[in-house]
Design goal:
five-stranded mixed β-sheet, 9 helices, 299 residues
Length: 299
Amino acid sequence: MARTRHVIAVDVGGTGTKAALVTGTHDRVTAVKQQRRATRPGGDAVVEDVALLVDELRAGHPVEAVGVVVPGIVDEVTGTGVYSANLGWADYPFRDRIAAATGLPTAFGHDVRAGGLAELRQGNARDLTDAVIMPIGTGIAAALVLDGRVSSAPGEIGHVDVGHGDPCGCGQTGCVEARASSAAIARRYTERTNRHVNGAADVAALLTEGDTEAAVVWREAVDALAKGILLVAALLGPRAVVLGGGLALAGPKLTDPLGGRLDELITFQRRPELRLAALGDEAGCLGAALLAIDMLEER
């Protein structure tokens, strides 16, 4: 029987950081105590905040390790945050600094790939050996599951040029993310109508009410997303695409038109099944915990 481990998991996001005391095994973990705080920019600030969260969560508990995941470009082998434009670090040695600050063995990884690992082991990708796990939020990225393992490939599907010509924050034009991210959907609706919405969920609600501008924005988002998935289907032929993040909360409002558009576009490619992720915004934390447990098991 697998040994139950006790670890602290931290998911550093672009605006907020989630942390949890987690128990479990290589196959399944559960958060038993949670904390959140705003993310401060800069590597040193992140390390300070992680150390404080660890101290708060470990009080009275026999914690064995820490797992930390961050956005941007990540080198898991060296434990380095290579680059984050939004949070302002470059070549920052997160794993070593966090281990020194907490006194605990530290596993370090990428937030989206860690969330994909959690979905693969205990979410809606459990039965899949080849899949794309794609959270859609402020941005769009993906964990690529190849031969039953999460690849270290960047998975930046959000920055594939699908030909619409709109500028993207990355400096390119035509990116999937510039039309299909939750942030882009809200922004584009406001630009077209001069009416403020809080997010893609508001646009989805307006779509249900028959708002014609919401329908245009939603249709164009679905088209961009379908073309991004089509490219992945041509290159990797995944059995399924597992959609997560805020936009996936739209459920059939997203999957029904997206599936229809894929059917229109696909010629020779393997048509991936569309699934909704199971773990919500816990996925990153649970994945960070799994990284920590894997590290302990390999010692």
